[in-house]
Amino acid sequence: MTIERLKASGYKLYAASKADADGLELALVQKSEGKRLFVSSRVRGFAGDTLSEGGLLCPLTYQNARKLMSVLPWLAPQRLPEGRPSFGFGDRIGLATPGHVRAVESYVVFPVLAQQSVREITRTGRSFEEVLSQAVFGAFQQGFNAGFGADADHLKAVDDALHAADLGYTLFTCDPSEYVVEVDELNAQAVAERFRSLPEAERLLEEYAGRETTLPGIGTMRLAEEELARAAVKYCGAVRFAADMYRALEARCPGGFDFELSVDETNSPTRPAEHWFVVSELGKLGVGLASLAPRFPGAMEKAVDWRGDLATFRDEFHAHMAIARALGSYRLSLHSGSDKFSLYPLIAEEANGLWHVKTAGTSYLVALGVTAEVAPQLFREIAAHSIRRFAEERHTYHLTTDTASIPDVRFLGESELPTLLVQDASRQVLHVAFGSVLQSPLGASLFRVLEANEERYSAALREHLGRHLALLGVSGGG
Q1: Residues contacting 459, CB < 8 A, separation 6+
Q2: In angstroms, rounded to a whole number, what is the distance separating the alpha carbons of residues 384 and 235?
Q3: Which CATH entry fits the domain spanning 75-182+210-361: 3.20.20.70, 3.40.50.460, 3.40.367.20, 3.30.420.10?
Q4: Which residue out of 91, 130, 151, 260 is catalytically annotated?
Q5: Which end of the chain is less enclosed by CB atoms within 10 A, N or C?
Q6: If you average pLDDT over residues 341-351, what whole number do you get?
Q7: Can 402 be counted among the known catalytic residues?
C-alpha cells in the first residue's frame, strides 16, 4: 500500500514525516485510534497491524522507534557536537517534541530532545523507553534530520545509567548530591576531623595545600589547607561516585558517550576553587566531562526568573567558565534553566558557545496555558489540585514560594485563569505538582486536550522556547 492510498482511506498524513529508505515508504499518520507509523511493506523489526493491501500500521512503541532509528539513522540520538552550544528540551507529557523542533529550527544550537530525570520519570509514571521513543517520533513527525541528543538526567544510580545506555541515550547526567556534604553547616573542628578521616587526605595535602596554579582569565588559584579540607569533605564522596558511574559507562558504551556532572542541587553555591578541585580530581581518575552544572549563586528556583545580584553572578560565572576552558573546554550547564531570562544574555556573552541549558517544566506550563485558553474548567481543576498537593510536592525543590499571594481559583473568572501562569508563586505551584496531575485522571484529560489542540500547543512552544534561544544569542540557523 502507498501513502496516497492510505490518505484516501481517511488517515491524516503528517506531510513532513514522509521518508523513503531504499524504496520503503514511511510516514506518520493519524486516525481516530491516534497516531501510527505507516510502513509500506512488511519489514522485520516493525510490529503492527497488517493492512489489506500490504504494509503495516505500527503503534508508537519503543520497539518500533528502535527499528525506525536503524532505518533512518538521523533519528538515532547523537553526541554533543564540538563548538556548538546545546539546549535541553525536557517533555514531561510526551507531546512537546514537534513544538520543540519548531522552536530550534531558526537557531544555531544542538537540541537534546529526549531529556528526563529519574525523579521526573518516577513522578510521571513514564520510562526511559517512552521518553526516547516519543522524542524520536516527534522528530520524525517534523521531518527533523539535523540531529539531536538524548539525556538520562540526574542519575543517582549506576544501574539506571547502564539501562539508559542500552536504550541508546548519549548524554548521562550524574547527580552525586547524596554524596555531597553540606560543609557550611559544620564548624571548623568538624571539617578538620572529617578531612583527616578521608582515605585521600595525605595525598590531597601534598598535591594541593598552598600550591598555586595560574589559570588564564582569573589568575592564581590556590587552596589553603582549611579551604582544601572544606572542598575535600564536601565533594570527595561525589567524585568517587561519579568515577564509578563513568567507568561503568565506558565499559557499556564502546562508541563513546557524553558525561555531565551535576552538583547544582546543594544548599551552598559551588565556589570556583571547589569547581577546580572537583574537576582536577576527576581528571586523575580518568573522567572526561562534556559538561558541569555547578550550584550558581542566587535563587535558581523552578519556573521563574533568577533572583540575585547580576554583578555577582557574572563574576562567578566568569571564573567558572575560565576553569572549564583551562581544564578541558567542557560546557557549563544551567539547570533549572526554564525562564531564566535575565541570565541568558550574560551566559551568551561569557560562555561564547560553551554552554548547555536545561528546561523541562516550562513546556509543561505552556501546556497548561493552552489548556487555560481552550478548556478553562479543566485548567481550574488542575490548578486547585496543584494547590492542594503543593505542601507535599515541594519537598525535593529549593523554593521560597509565597502561597498566600495566590488567589482562590474558585472565584476567578475564565478570563482571569491565565494570570496564574504569570504570577511567580502560582507558576511554581503549578510546576512542581506535575507528577500528581499527570498520574491522576486530570492527566488523561490534559493529554486529550493537547492532542486535540496539537497545532496550538506546538505554536505556543515555538514562541516560548524561541524566546529563550533568542536571548541566548544563537539566532541565525536554518
Answers
A1: 99, 102
A2: 41
A3: 3.20.20.70
A4: 260
A5: C
A6: 98
A7: no
Answer for the pair 366, 472: CB distance below 8 angstroms, yes or no: no
**Total-model pTM:** 0.96
- Angle, in degrees to the nearest 10, between helices 441-452 and 454-471: 90
Separation of alpha carbons 473 and 475, rounded Å: 6
Angle at 306 between CA 417 and CA 412, to 5 degrees: 10
Q: Are the beta carbons of 226 and 256 closer than 8 angstroms?
A: no
- Closest by CA to 6, choosing from 49, 68, 65, is 49
Q: Which pLDDT value is given to residue 1?
A: 65
Catalytic residue among 91, 153, 258, 424: 153
| Residue owning grid cell 576531623 | 193
The angle formed by the CA atoms of residues 26, 29 and 34, to the nearest 5 degrees, is: 135
The SS3 call for residue 52 is coil
Q: In which band, very low, low, confident or very high, does the pLDDT at 330 lie, cut at 50, 70 and 90?
A: very high
Say if residue 335's pLDDT is above 50: yes
CA distance 396 to 217: 36
Nearest to 433 by CA among 381, 388, 378: 388
The answer to whether the CB of 453 falls within 8 A of the CB of 142 is no
Active site residue 373: no
Does residue 364 contact residue 457 with C-beta atoms inside 8 Å? no
C-alpha torsion sign, points 394, 398, 402, 406: negative
Domain spans, the chain: 3-59, 75-182+210-361, 363-466
